[in-house]
Specification:
- The chain contains 15 helices and 27 strands.
- It has about 550 residues and is an alpha/beta fold.
- The strands form 6 sheets. Strands 14-15-17-16-18-19-22-25-24-23 form a 10-stranded mixed β-sheet, with helices on both faces.
- β24 and β25 form a beta hairpin.
- The radius of gyration is 24 Å and the shape is globular.
Length: about 550
Amino acid sequence: METGREEFWHYVSAKAGCDPVKTVFLCAPQAFSGTAAEAEAFAERTGWKQQIEDDGSLLIMPLSNDWSHESRDRIFQLYQSTRNSFRAPSGKTIPGRGGIVWTWETVIYIVGYQEGADYAGDVLVRYPGMFAGTALIDGRAHDFSAADERTVSWLVRQPSADYQLRNRDIPSAVWLFGADDDGGQTEAYFRSISGTDEHLQEGDTEIFRSSACMAREVLVTRSLGQQDPRISACVMHEFFNHVIRWKNSPDGTLAWHTGREDFYGTDRYRHHEVTADGIAYPYAVYLPKGMRPEEARGLPAVFSIHGRGEPAWIFAEKNGWEDLADRTREFAVILPDSPQNIWNMDRDRNSIPAIVQQVLKDYQLDAERIYLTGFSNGAVFTIQQATAFPELYAAASPWNGPAARLLGSAAGAVIVDPRLLAEGYEMPFWVCAGDSDSKASADDMEPDLEWMCRANGCTLESEQVWDRNNHYTAAAGYADGERFRTRVYARADGSVRVGMTIMKNMPHGAVVEESRAAWEFLKRFRRISQGHEVSEMIAAGRKQ
């Protein structure tokens, strides 16, 4: 591509399509970074082009005649200016994207060799929140002057005034290969910011890891260097496929991730498929860790519905439902997949009911305690399903979804099934939104509260506020409690039936504690014999 002069060479995998693609920035040694032909030859020789092809990803190689004179802002600016310009070779992508691949903010990585590694290391010091993982081969960071600067906070442009993080406050995942030319300074710096307190040895690789989060790690392999193609295979499969930076704060949060291969290749998730209206719908079932299917009989089920562009394999751990299931052992998680990674009510109307019937048959779960939750496009689909088939579900929790109005209200809004109100069904709703979400404004969802309250016998005048002072307290175990502000709406008997949580400094993402808050609400309700009313098994605020 050209922007004044040829600035980078790129390669899009032929497998890139509806799934979000990893963006891997590769900074070649000085001798191989001057022209596109040199860059491509280097990508082939080191195995990176093949790794990108096999993974369905995107490779970007900035070109440079002198890495030492390149701006540390260049990679950030390059991502921002090009992210919506790469076409899938097949032309098949998520509907509505016009053949453009989805370069998702949570899966950006940077690799450098020799002088390119020196540059990539310095970029990481300057932009730690941008990258989920970094590999430096025969080079290290040398400029740490940006360590004490305020973070770019690129996911939330204007965070609250009390968000005062420096670059050195953002943990990173780094793999260092080959020659150490800085006396261990790079290793020491990244070990320090990631709080590594565990030391492991696996073969010829030393692993320094944080006991608080296994993704916060610094790996050191001194026996491999130069342009050994084994490096790209190791980094892609053992590292990049398992580290992700969720976009749930101004700088995101580094986390360990199961990855596509393990999602489908291990027995942690049980994979099934149903057919509805001639369309196949794969779905995964997650039981609490160590629980056999026969032990899960009678458990409630939480349907966790992905958003646009987030297939179940990547969405699975995003909102923390599996972890919560492991800790509480109170429910099973069902993760449905949509065709083309997008939910469409006209096409997919009967998909979730078909999965409900199948899991009830196969796992003998509690038919009276089936709950819906979904994110973004999945949030809209959650509301559509809950209002079209209210007899199937006990409660619903849409997160970060665009406005979804009932028929006859706001013009141009997503139309959801009027059956809920028309036939007098109750349906408790717990809504989550971010205060800095550019894709689904919390303000847009305000009118939804009126019809949700109407369906549940609540009034907007019954509003109460739950926050870190009276509900999401440290004593109650909410580490992120200061980010919560929830308005709840009760019936005349004091039963809370509708709630809306707005998360502070939240882009289009979520923190796992929202799952806990949602579950505390959802689990109170049961729909007996597919009736119009739901019964409350335990009052809000009371311990079970």
